[in-house]
Specification:
With about 190 residues, the chain is mainly beta. It is built from one helix and ten strands; from the N terminus they run H-E-E-E-E-E-E-E-E-E-E. The two termini are about 30 Å apart.
């Protein structure tokens, strides 16, 4: 719940920060949800989609709010089989460096950290559950004027109880690979 409040605070304060000569961005993305470790025993690789709202708060810092959705199938050996709706909401920061290719293009590699909440909503077998989640990110942006191509990889660490009802809550891991656009609104 605290993470959701932080996200709301960041999104509400973004317009105020934007008035202080910073650059707001909207970033739709698509990618892959890739379970690793014991999470790979439960979920299949799945399509991931979502959007980010970012504010360039300093010469080398973005404050980022993200929403993502994925609907992986889960293993029939774990439960009766089906789809899990996974929603990820988080807030984070990115440190980046701008490198000029020429007078028009900027290359902006970045690293990031963040945290939020993950909601697992199984279709047809029970109630949804919320767990805290954190991530580390690495990526790059190729910017031409106010539009940029973005590539990002995130390594998520979260908790998950499992699907059988008798499973203990365990720390789980997955990777999110994303590609998208960034629209610099100023």
């Amino acid at each position: 719940m605290r993470s959701v409040l932080l996200l709301v605070a960041a999104l509400v304060s973004a317009p105020m920060v934007a008035q202080a000569q910073v650059i707001p961005e909207v970033r739709p993305f698509v990618g892959a949800f890739i379970p690793t470790g014991n999470q790979a025993d439960v979920f299949d690789v799945a399509l991931l989609g979502g959007a980010q709202v970012a504010v360039e708060a300093a010469d080398m810092l973005h404050v980022v709010g993200s929403f993502g959705f994925s609907g992986p199938k889960y293993d029939k050996l774990v439960a009766t089989g089906g789809h899990m709706h996974i929603y990820q909401i988080d807030v984070g920061g990115e440190l980046f460096r701008s490198v000029e290719f020429n007078n028009d293009w900027l290359f902006r590699p970045f690293v990031g950290l963040g945290g939020g909440v993950r909601m697992y909503d199984p279709t047809g077998i029970g109630d949804s559950k919320n767990y805290p989640a954190g991530y580390g990110a690495i990526g790059a942006e190729f910017q031409l004027s106010r539009i940029a191509l973005r590539f990002e990889g995130r390594d998520y660490l979260t908790r998950f109880k499992g699907l059988s009802g008798n499973d203990p809550v365990k720390t789980r891991n997955e990777v999110a690979l994303m590609a998208g656009m960034a629209f610099h609104l100023k």
